[in-house]
Amino acid sequence: AGRLMKEVQVSEARAFYGFQIAIENIRSEMYSLLLETYIKDSEEKNRLFHAMETVPCVAKKAQWALRWIDGSESCAERLVAFACVEGIFFSGSFCAIFWLKKRGLMPGLTFSNELISRDEGLHCDFACLLYSLLRKKLSEERVKGIVKDAVDIEREFVVDALPCALVGMNGELMSQYIEFVADRLLGALGCGKVYYVANPFDGMELISLQGKTNFFEKRVGEY
Q1: What is the per-residue DSSP string for 71-118?
Q2: What whole-number distance in Å separates Cα of residue 158 and Cα of residue 57?
Q3: Alpha-carbon Rg of the chain, whole angstroms?
């Protein structure tokens, strides 16, 4: 977001990226607090705090994102890449956390990630909107190449993070969900589908849709 904020000259877009950076800082603090809460073993906690260096599948995602920040690619390519970061790189994690939510487990973790998933959806939508305003867009082949690259990395992450099948959740279904999300992102970028798969998880559409909560019953995740 920082580099795009420097490149984009539209005042409203620069303001949006300022808010996005602030939101990402808050999210980083939230994840740190969750690690402090759930992980009691100091060695494991330290390993997860430095996941970009200690967990290969996380490092691969980080390196892919940094490549677009530091590289010489066009602004259009960076917008598509960061739409993938916001829209694809978190889809597997959010899907697993939604599985916990449906079973009433770890309410603090699931509620905080419900809020984050909405932010990520907004950031992804904004990247797609800004891309749609560009006069010089990428070829459909190039857009699909970037998206497929992101899908491959996220699938690898899911297989590593979820080695054991759970009730209603396994690596194969998660991979299909990632492909479903990727096709939806391609549509938002004005391209055709690549994977042509259905959403394997009933209710997962709810992550990106407006919800309604009785304000007197619980703290809300809709805003």
Answers
A1: S---HHHHHHHHHHHHHTTTHHHHHHHHHHHHTT--HHHHHHHHHHHH
A2: 9
A3: 18
CB 148 within 8 A of CB 194: yes
Residue 131: name the closest of 88, 170, 83, 84 by CA: 83
Quote the pTM value: 0.86
Rounded to whole angstroms, the Cα distance separating 182 from 87 reads 8
User: Which amino acid is residue 186, in one-letter code?
Assistant: L
What is the distance between the alpha carbons of residues 223 and 164, in angstroms, rounded to a whole number? 35
Between 23-37, 97-111, 159-173, the lowest mean confidence (pLDDT) is in 159-173
Catalytic center residues: 31
Q: Where are the domains of the chain?
A: 58-189
Helix axes 56-70, 140-161, angle to 10 degrees: 150
Q: What is the pLDDT of residues 151-171, one digit of tens each?
A: 999 999 988 877 666 667 788
CATH topology of domain 58-189: Ribonucleotide Reductase, subunit A (1.10.620)
Confidence of residue 22 (pLDDT cuts 50, 70, 90): very high
